[in-house]
Specification:
With 423 residues, the chain is mainly α. It has a single domain, classed as Growth Hormone, Chain: A (Up-down Bundle), CATH 1.20.1250.20. Helices cover 83% and strands 0% of the residues.
Length: 423
């Protein structure tokens, strides 16, 4: 019996490594959502659109991403993981290729195709891939989340910069069409390879006996009915707002503080790298410690990020912008890792796709917070005012970890007692 159990564990480990690799490659392409700052200038030039109008596309795309994640969790119930990922690939293809074909002179086409359709496609695919792959790793959920998010986070550095190098020679339209086709092909391959794990995966991989009577108590808790979830959201929304304020305008902001165009373009890739590395590093930190430590470390980095960029705009010293932007990429990259692991650990696996999509609505509210901050300081052009406000908010995110930690300890104690009684 022991030999058979060991064999089954070995088989699952081989399978899940393959699934993790396929899923990471898929997210590498879907992560082009974060390469927008690279494509915004070519869009303005090619489509003859105003910079301020085009810049709004990023926020639209991030909001559509959140909506797509929620819709994707429901689509998956009807057509399964395969159908959901294929749907995501089709929407991404329509979004990017459609922008290339119909974006000239029409900001509404860019909003609807690149922003809404592309963003929703990414949200649907992201949610299905993350929710399915992570369940294969009940013993290393932070690690699996980190690897997956790394692929998503370094997309701008790898696929984005490679694509941008072809824009000068081939033009923006062929590049967008090619990206749409390539991403659809990768999503299609993932759809036919990725499978759900066995229902007793937790018992097999962790050695812990399954709850013998009824569901795992965590499965019965709903995020929107749990006070600690909202306290978690405060932290996530603020850090996301700081990240979006930087990532969406990294190239142009770097030039505003005196960095040359070539370095500013390179910095986008460096920030993307920090984003990706954070997802691995903080995924391991999550597994070795807990969500409380992960949040505290991340909030501290967020204070440095917002503070560095604020000082850069106040003094005109580009070095502070580089430090702040890299820290910003790092702290932003931690949020999706923590959110996917937190959703799985706190609310169980039964309703994981839906719970993950609800938790990821923090991105939508982070986008709205970013817009609200800009409006409060007199507009997006007042970058000093924007980051002064975000610096104050980063301090709130750091303080928020204290009440969350107390609520988390209380929740975990209650769930552990319920599991003990059930067994």
């Amino acid at each position: 019996m022991a030999e058979n159990a060991d064999l089954k564990v070995a088989q699952i480990r081989r399978k899940r490594v393959a699934y993790l690799a396929v899923s990471t490659v898929s997210l590498l392409f879907l992560g082009l959502i974060y390469a927008f700052s690279l494509f915004s200038a070519p869009m303005c030039a090619t489509f003859e659109l105003e910079k301020n109008d085009v810049s709004l596309t990023f926020n639209i795309m991030m909001m559509a991403f959140c909506v797509g994640a929620v819709i994707g969790s429901q689509i998956e119930k009807v057509v399964g993981v395969r159908g959901s990922i294929i749907c995501a690939g089709i929407m991404f293809l329509v979004g990017f290729a459609g922008t290339g074909l119909f974006g000239y002179g029409s900001i509404m086409a860019v909003y609807l195709l690149y922003g809404v359709c592309g963003g929703m496609g990414v949200g649907i695919g992201y949610n299905s891939i993350i929710a399915t792959t992570n369940v294969w790793f009940p013993d290393k959920v932070g690690f699996s989340s980190g690897v997956l998010m790394m692929g998503f986070g370094v997309s701008a550095l790898l696929v984005g910069n490679l694509s941008l190098s072809f824009v000068a020679s081939a033009g923006l339209t062929p590049v967008l069409i090619a990206l749409g086709i390539a991403t659809f092909a990768v999503a299609l391959a993932c759809a036919f390879i990725l499978k759900r794990p066995p229902e007793n995966i937790i018992e097999i991989m962790t050695g812990k006996e399954a709850v013998t009577t009824g569901d795992d108590p965590a499965d019965n808790d709903k995020p929107l009915s749990t006070p600690s979830f909202y306290v978690y959201w405060i932290w996530a929304i603020i850090v996301i707002a700081i990240g979006l304020a930087t990532i969406g305008s990294c190239a142009s902001d770097a030039q505003l503080v005196g960095l040359d165009t070539a370095f500013a373009t390179m910095l986008v890739g460096v920030v993307s790298t920090a984003n990706g590395l954070a997802r691995i590093v903080m995924g391991v930190v999550y597994d070795k410690t807990n969500v409380k430590v992960t949040m505290a470390v991340n909030a501290g980095v967020a204070v440095i990020a917002a503070g560095g960029i604020f000082v850069a705009f106040a003094t005109g010293m580009g070095v502070f912008y580089v430090i702040g932007a890299v820290c910003c990429g790092f702290c932003y990259g931690t949020v999706p890792v923590a959110t996917s692991a937190f959703s799985r650990q706190r609310f169980g696996s039964k309703n994981y796709p839906l719970n993950l999509s609800i938790a990821n609505l923090a991105i939508l509210f982070g986008s709205l917070l970013n817009i609200a901050v800009q409006a409060a300081v007199g507009g997006a052009e007042n970058r000093l005012g924007v980051f002064a406000a975000l610096l104050a908010l980063s301090a709130i995110a750091l303080a928020d970890v204290i009440p969350f930690s107390k609520m988390w300890n209380r929740d975990m104690k209650r769930l552990d007692e319920a599991r003990t009684q059930a067994n």
